[in-house]
Every structure is written in C-alpha cells, then in structure tokens.
Amino acid sequence: MAESEQRQSLDISLRSSVWIEKETLMLSMFKNLPLGTSDFKALRSRGQIYVDKTSMLLRLAEGRSAKVLFTRPRRFGKTLLLSTFESLFAEGLRHFDGLAIDGRWTDRTYPVVRLDFSQLAFFADAVEFERKFRDFIAFSFSEAGFECEQPDGSLGFRLSRWFNGLPPDSLVVLVDDYDAPLLAAMGSPSTFEAVASLLREFFAVLHCNEDVLRFLFVTGTVKPANARVFDGFGSLTDISLDSAYGTLAGFTIEELHRDLTRPLFNAASEQCLLTRRYKS
Question: C or N: which end of the chain has fewer Cβ atoms within 10 Å?
C-alpha cells in the first residue's frame, strides 16, 4: 500500500474513533433526561428524571369505577401518563419509590387492557379499518382472558357477553389516542362516519358494562364534535379543562426549575466542553 493511502486509512480510522467516543460521551451526558421515553417502567429502571405527577394520578385512580377523558396536543406526555397508570394498576407501587404516591396507594392489582389507537391510523378505506379494528380489539382483550376465536355473534356482542362473566370493578382499560383513526379519515366523510360508528359501538359496549370497569382512562388530541363517539356515555368525565388537572401532562415553569434546569444546564456545559475539546 502506498504511503499516501496508509495515511488516508489512518486518518479515517482516527476520525471514526473520535466520532464514536464523542457520541458515547454525548449519550452519557443526556442519559438521565427522559428524551423520547414514554414507558414509565423503562424510565424508572434507567434512573431517568420523572417529573412527579403521581399525586394527581392518585386522586384519579383511587376513585372507584372512575371513567375519564383527557385531551391534550401531541407530545404532551399522554402516552407516558397511560403507562404510569398501567404500572400502578398492574404492579402496584413497584416502580414508584420516592414519588408522592409511595405509601399512599393501598389498592390491589388488576388485569389491564391497554389500547393504542394510533396503531389503527393507517388504512386505505373503511373496510380495511373495520378488519384491523376488530382484530386489534379482539387480540388486546384476549390478553385479559377474552376468547377471540369464538365464531358466533359480532365482536361487540361477544365482548359484552365476556364482560357479563366478570366481577364488578375487576378490569382496567386504558385507551391512548382514541381519535387517531378519526383524524386519519378526515379527508373522506363516508370513511370518517364508518370509523366513528365503530368507535361508538366499542365505547357503547364499555358503557353498557361499566360496572366491570375498575378504571377507564381515555386520551386524545381533540374531541371532534361531529363524531359523537361518546354518545350516551354519561359517566365519562372530561377533565381536559378541569383546572385541578391542568398540569397532569406537560411541565410547569416550577417543575422545569425544580426537576430539569440543573440536569439541562450540566448537559449543556459538558457539551460545550466536549465541543471545545474536539475542535482543538
């Protein structure tokens, strides 16, 4: 190999080594910041910063048979919020050491059915959505014991019959981004109505069997007035504009100062030092 080629190869190798080292150091700087983490158990197990909202979660969750709707824009932490409820009801206080709810939650654990409707936002027409929706609901509830392979009756009827065999206050249902399929169908009035009809049918089943639900929490981005998804679901409480839960998602100025200012400042300072190091 020519001397120039050797030098070029060595230069590439050194640059690669420096890049890897720099990326490793960058990741270590931000490891405690919950960047992109929407799973509560993962966040806690990694030792990442959690802005404690559990006193409000306690108020919501300790109410027997509570049914709640909560809407916020995207990227406000709604998925993390649902993940926190899931951890609380499924595993108790296992991941809540040192948080406001620690030592105050005394309820037992429950089977939890968690539904992320954003997974249903990709479909070509109403027929495809109906197939995906029914398969998704059947599979999700099967993890709590629902027999989704029974051939007789519609899915709504079979699900309602299964609910009838459950004790009161025995199941937790968490629905994330309930409106994602509706927003995906906004360009076609007929498809929008077909999607809304299926969602109405599903929530009607939950309403008719609400005595079985220990807790129901539904999140969304908006509440389309013409969808009427929750028609007749009088026990569903919309807390979206309730000042008592105004800070349930997102961060307040006080929370930013208390929990995030120092970690962000430290990470920014280390990044400046790192940049100077590699520039020199």
Answer: C
